[in-house]
Design a protein that fits this description.
The complex is a heterodimer of chains A (about 270) and B (about 300). Chain A is mainly α. Chain A is built from nine helices and no strands. In chain B, helix 5 packs antiparallel against helix 6, helix 6 packs across helix 8 and helix 7 packs across helix 10. The longest helix of chain B has about 40 residues. Classes of the chains: A mainly alpha (about 270), B mainly alpha (about 300).
């Protein structure tokens, strides 16, 4: 139990750092040649990177990057996926069949391969990263929302609402979405973990956040070259990434047990995608 | 069975068609003119025109799509802009390395996950169970572009047992495969545990125990055999994640497979090769999924008789 509370505290810290980063006295871009590859010491908690920039400050800026990318991608994917999935399942017929065909095609791209290709072709940058990850991410939500709506759309209260002449849009938003929100919330939670890893993964490949901006993935990428002389450059950002992802996963497990959701297994982006 | 087979094959053909079309469209999604992006601002007008013709970008979209699809059917994916050889031969030279990596990672994952999941389910709630599930949580959460460098730090730089990167000899395969296989091992061991626990609630398990069969026999002969199906389903799906993850893992270890080719080609803006890599990796995944689905239908008559959608 104590572990689980720790995960919530870690996630709150992550959010707090991300939101307050612009006002913190950070110097993530200050090049200090005398500090190049400096190991951690009392004045410089996590040491300095290959340009003498403080690793701790860059780590906090990286927290900000991953937090915002995760927020954007998960909210957009959730919104688009749920809308398409729920509407297609409710309308049925050709709408539903068309959606299933599209989902089948997107699901045929393994893991984050499509995101890698898209981010690569669109060119680096956070906007393109968010676009690429959303394009991959909505499918999982659409699939889940569709399956859930199919399982509840014949319930009595929905049929009653139809008999009363309620508009389809109102039925979907007021009578169906509340019923299917629990699994979607759990999926979205795991989705955060997936997006955080995917953002770092793409940045690690050089396809995401560009220098001098900091991302945990690009910090690892830069640090790998100095693995022998300055392992802290890889260990610090990786540990931050790992702790955040594990906290999100622990929270997801907890939510899943609490909301008693059994259908969710792993999103499009999680499940060892990277 | 024939009806199921036909339905499943139809879906597969449709998906291959859709995937190829999407890969074709990728290059057209690049904002602005792909020729500008490939050659840079300073290229001369004649060069641009030449590349445009070489890529067929001067023709109408439908015609380009038609010739792309025609090429896919004939394993002709165009010519690399950087290597001056056909994309198909480039892919061919890299394919084996990726298959080797993914295959060993898969074996690693199964070899770790099966005993771990079995142990956790058999001793539910014990220290073993919590240990195994703790490992699973770590494994799911650790990104392989961090695990890889950590393993290199320990086994290559500190202990000096294994090579840092590259593909020379069987030893160089160990760290990449372990890195790639860990997350699959973690997911799989959770799945083995949960599907076994579900099966162990069944009446026939109680009967088997009542007949005095040993714990091991009940667990493996009666439990695992019936828990296979959900495990297989997950396995088929997760192989895709494995192939996607291979791109990152190959980059970490400089493993000369399709993943490094993809990332290099993205950096070189060698679009035909990018398309080729994405296409080949995705189609391999589609094929694996098709085979897995047919395997279940063969294993479990309920599927082929009820014609559950694949």
């Amino acid at each position: 139990m104590r572990w689980r509370s720790a995960s919530v505290i870690i996630l709150l810290c992550w959010a707090l750092v991300a939101l307050s980063a612009p006002w913190l006295p950070l110097q993530p871009y200050d090049i200090a040649l005398e500090n190049i590859l400096q190991s951690p010491e009392p004045q410089l908690w996590l040491g300095a990177d290959d340009l003498g920039r403080p690793v701790l400050d860059r780590l906090l800026m990286g927290a900000r990057t991953s937090f915002w990318v995760a927020c954007w991608v998960v909210s957009l994917s959730l919104l688009i996926g749920t809308l398409f999935g729920a509407v297609a399942a409710y309308r049925g017929g050709i709408w539903d069949r068309a959606l299933v065909l599209v989902i089948d095609i997107f699901m045929a791209f393994p893991g984050i391969l499509l995101a890698i290709a898209l981010a690569g072709l669109l060119g680096p940058g956070i906007d393109n990263l968010v676009f690429a990850l959303t394009l991959v991410g909505w499918v999982g939500f659409a699939r889940l929302a569709r399956a859930q709506v199919l399982s509840v759309k014949q319930r009595d209260h929905v049929l009653a609402a139809q008999a009363l002449g309620t508009r389809p849009w109102r039925i979907v938003t007021r009578h169906l979405l509340p019923l299917i929100s629990a699994p979607l919330v759990v999926e979205a939670t795991f989705g955060i973990a997936g997006v955080v890893v995917a953002e770092s993964g793409l940045s690690f490949l050089g396809l995401g956040v560009q220098p001098p901006e900091a991302s945990w993935g690009s910090m690892i990428r830069d640090g790998v070259r100095y693995l022998l002389v300055a392992p802290h450059l890889v260990i610090a950002p990786g540990a931050a990434l790992f702790i955040v992802v594990m906290s999100v996963n622990l929270l997801g497990d907890r939510l899943r047990d609490w909301l008693d959701v059994r259908t969710v297994r792993s999103t499009r982006l999680t499940g060892g995608a990277v | 069975m024939p009806a199921y087979l036909a339905g499943r094959l139809f879906t597969a053909v449709w998906v291959v068609f859709g995937v190829s079309t999407l890969v074709f469209l990728l290059i057209h999604w690049v904002p602005g003119d792909p020729v500008d992006v490939m050659l840079g601002e300073s290229a001369s007008g004649a060069d641009r025109e030449l590349l445009r013709q070489a890529l067929g970008l001067d023709r109408p979209l439908f015609e380009q799509w038609w010739s792309f699809m025609h090429g896919v059917l004939h394993f002709d994916l165009g010519t690399s802009l950087y290597h001056q050889q056909s994309v198909a031969s480039l892919l061919d030279s890299r394919y084996a390395a990726t298959a080797e990596l993914a295959g060993l990672a898969f074996l690693f994952a199964v070899a770790i996950a099966l005993p771990l999941g079995l142990l956790a389910a058999a001793r539910r709630g014990s220290v073993w169970d919590r240990g195994a599930m703790g490992f699973a949580m770590l494994g799911v959460s650790i990104p392989n572009f961090w695990l890889g460098p950590l393993l290199v730090l320990l086994f290559s730089l500190q202990l000096g047992w294994l090579p840092v990167s590259g593909r020379e000899g069987p030893a160089s395969l160990l760290l990449p495969a372990l890195t790639l296989g860990t997350s699959l091992a973690a997911i799989l061991s959770r799945m083995v545990r949960s599907s076994l626990l579900e099966v162990l609630e069944e009446d026939y398990i109680r009967s088997a125990r009542a007949r005095g069969l040993s714990g091991y026999q009940v667990l493996v002969r009666h439990g695992l055999r019936n828990a296979w199906l959900p495990i297989l389903t997950l396995l088929g799906m997760q192989l895709g994640a494995l192939l996607g993850g291979a791109v990152v893992t190959e980059t970490v270890f400089n493993w000369p497979g399709l993943g490094t080719l993809l990332v290099e080609s993205i950096q070189r803006r060698d679009y035909p090769v990018v398309q080729g890599c994405v296409l080949v990796i995705s189609l391999s995944y589609v094929l694996i999924n098709l085979l897995t689905d047919l395997l279940y239908a063969w294993v479990d008559p309920r599927i082929r008789l009820h014609q559950v959608r694949g």
